[in-house]
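Review this:
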Amino acid sequence: MNLLQTECQSLVDALDGILTVVPGTGLVACFGLPKSHLDDPARGLFFANRVQLWLAANTELEASIGIATAAEVVADNAKTIYRAESFEMAAQLAVEAPSLKIWANEVTCRLAGPAIVTG
């Protein structure tokens, strides 16, 4: 496990989410699975900000971060989130975002309220 993945796993565990490795693409942090919280969008933004800071301080890696929130129905025993609307939206935002920037969809920003980070 590389250092970035270890750092991300520690953060996701502390924020009660799950971390998935997408081979050849990157890491996906999901908040709201397996248990949802009213502040999941804020948790996602907090996570993204911490990862952004870690990347800037510890690596030359060219990486961008996409965050999306959408109302979704997911089975309790779901093994994958790759077909979820929020996953696809976050992936597209990450592709379009400049390196070391966080792009979030409007729903995430609205629900996160004062937790919104700029930078």
